[in-house]
Design a protein that fits this description.
The structure is a homodimer.
Chain A (H helix, E strand, L loop, with lengths): L15 H31 L4 H8 L3 H13 L3 E2 L7 E2 L1 H23 L4 H11 L5 H15 L2
Antiparallel strand pairs in A: 1-2
Helix pairs in contact in A: 1-4, 2-3, 4-5, 4-6
Bound molecules: manganese (II) ion (4 copies).
One manganese (II) ion binds next to α1 of chain A.
Chain A binds a DNA duplex through α1 and α3.
Chain lengths: 149, 149
DNA sequence: TCGATTCTGTAGCACTGGCTACATTATGCA
DNA sequence: TGCATAATGTAGCCAGTGCTACAGAATCGA
């Protein structure tokens, strides 16, 4: 009830307010994305995802990891039992796959613009969480155009 | 002391850990960037930046704005007096100018890839805060190549 | 001019995600 | 096999950023 009353039909044009709200929501989700992505990688490479390995790779203490894992469990992305390693739910695996793909596209896209590998990796870590479906598609188009194949 | 010991000379290759730490730091700064950018816009268009206008545009309550402004004042980006409007310090103006420029480049860049204006605005609101100097330069190069002029 | 309304500010709550200090459980090796 | 070490977990602190409820100051129009 704080919209410009009458004006349906064509899309109502997103306001700055709505864009900022969306960005805040993305921030709330990005920890989840980085975590499930890393859990999937650890399971693939080490056979299991342990709190201590995540803490070392994330650069935070194990306490922070434990509390975040508890939240992700509450949200249905992972499962754990006391003193056991971490597993992904079906939804967690889905999100991990999607996040990894987007991450790779963003890195490849930045590199295709001539950005160094190191900076591409670094910037992608933040940018990835704010790339919509439409923008991701545009990145892929750009890569296909340049990449040949 | 958790680096690969011996291997100086050329840059030590940033670890995932360091990239994530950098992303966290960027998040701590992005509120400041969006605020000073908006304060500059309000001063330019309305003659002054008031709490209530910022709250409406940001989509948060005035309480949140007041507390954030207090922090920005502590950090030397703005000045205020009780019941008076908000001013930028020299450093605040510098940051506002830089943020606005980067915001505009990011939006223009996304649009140049064929992303719709609405989505470009929305994605840029988050992406802008993770675009390094080097990536920004790559965006500008890409725009100059396509844009002609 | 003065009273209603609007604006600014404070108190106190929730949640996230950092941390240290300490407790408990598992693990691995002598 | 047992004990030192490593890993996991809990308690409680902090800062940031949301919120509602309420208090105080400023403004505007009748
Ligand atoms: Mn990331
Ligand atoms: Mn972000
Ligand atoms: Mn902006
Ligand atoms: Mn922004």
């Amino acid at each position: 009830m704080d919209q410009l009353a009458a004006k349906p039909s064509h899309t109502p044009a997103p306001t700055l307010k709505e864009n900022l709200r969306k960005t805040r929501e993305e921030h709330a989700r990005e920890t989840a994305q980085d975590y499930v992505e890393m859990i999937a990688e650890l399971i693939a490479s080490q056979g299991e995802a342990r709190v201590i390995d995540m803490a070392r790779r994330l650069g935070v203490t194990h306490v922070t990891v434990i509390r975040t894992i508890q939240r992700l469990q509450r949200e249905g992305l992972v499962t754990t039992q006391p003193y056991r390693s971490i597993f992904l739910t079906a939804e967690g695996r889905r999100l991990a796959k999607e996040s990894r793909h987007r991450h790779e596209v963003v890195v490849a896209f930045l590199e295709s613009l001539g950005v160094s590998a190191a900076v591409s990796q670094s910037d992608a870590e933040g940018i990835e969480h704010h790339v919509s479906r439409e923008t991701l598609a545009a990145f892929v188009r750009h890569l296909e155009k340049k990449g040949g194949a």
